[in-house]
Give the backbone structure.
Amino acid sequence: MKDNPRHIYTVSQLTQDIKLILENTFEQVWVEGEVSNFKADAKGHFYFSLKDEGAVLPAAMFRQANKEVRFKIEDGLKAICFGRIDVYPPHGKYKLNIGKIEPKGIGSQQLAFEQLKKKLFQEGLFDPAHKRELPLMPFSVGIVTSASGAAVRDILQILKKGAACVDVLIRSVRVQGEFAAREVADGIAELNQFKNVDLIIVSRGGGSSEELMPFNEEAVARAVYNSAIPVISAVGHQINITLADMVADVFVETPSAAAKIIVDKKNSLLAELDGLKHQLAFAASAVIGRLNNTLVALRHMLKSPQDRLLERQQFLNRLNLDLSNNIRHYLNIVRERSAALIERLDALSPLAVLSRGYSLSMRLPEGEIIKDASQIKAGDKVSTTLSKGSFVSEVQQINKDQARPDQGGQ
Amino acid sequence: MKEKQSFEEEMKRLHNIVEELSGGKLNLGESLKKYEEGVKLAQSCAATLNEAQRKVELLMKKGDKFVLEKFEDNPGEGKE
């Protein structure tokens, strides 16, 4: 424009104008973005950028403001920031000077809790491998809680009824307020120093989730972790599990439940002892039974030679009996057979034949028995034997044709 | 502490005895001895558990020293 004279700024003047415009326009501004390039300098001031898809905004949060922040600001955090725009003329740059920062979508307390949880997890405080086993039977229990609270009464009552053998040592602490975490942590450490404690119960009565805060603090979590004595945490809720719960060796929801663990241990030990007594009796009677069996077997073996002798004797008797029976039988047979033979001999005896009227003739003088008429001739002398006596006669006539073999001796 | 340790030791010993006795490798004299010892241990352990004398104390720290104070048990049950 020719009729308008040129107005020429110095760099400083222009920058000053920009500074005024920007700083007046954006004196109180809320900005949402993602944290990147986070840095904390030696003095404790924070420097980072807020960015989104289209732009980057340099930001600073000075120590005075950032010491109130409970959670850790880190790259990637989606945050809503409140502050003002500052322009720094010597660098020709502007930035957001942040007074407040909130994580987006999550409360700052919650974020702080999540961040601490993550840190402790990475350090291994929740590692199941680190969990200590509860003693077989804790005869001395330390309780870290408020001595005037309901928790201690509940625990004492249940132990009195169910496990009166358990001594109780109460380390009274505040379980609410800003000193609670420190006192609880110290209480756990002191019970460890005191030593004569088998088990520690960290407990508190019921309450809102705000009252759980001390049990979500790092000091308590570390004290539980560092305890050489096993710890039962009884501070949580069904919904809100505290960091103390997560580090503890066992966690339960109520003080009563913690005490019941001890009562249950006692009762199951008593049952186990009953069982062991039965096993002892059973095993002992099994030993005696086994020995008894051996004794019976041995006695049997001792009696055996006599038995064997008897058996042999009986066998011998039987043989004897058999033998005499057999002999008798044989003799009978022989006797019968010889009788038959005698009968037959009788029948065959020439004397028997003679008694039936037959006679026996022999030619004299030879004495040759005459069976055939041709053996003799007229004039021969013949001796004839009868059944009774004999006589000598002289042959007068021969009749050969009448010869019959069975009448030859006539 | 001593009580607890000896209790755990007695329980362990009792388990060992039951195992030995059930193993059936002992002679009669040994068996009866083990049986007797086992029964005694079981009774002693049960007696320890059934004991009804307990202490309830408050642990305080005075300076560097621990102090024990009797704790009034169950104020709500004062009639006892």
Chain A has a mean pLDDT of 87. Chain A touches chain B through 47 residues (CB under 8 Å).
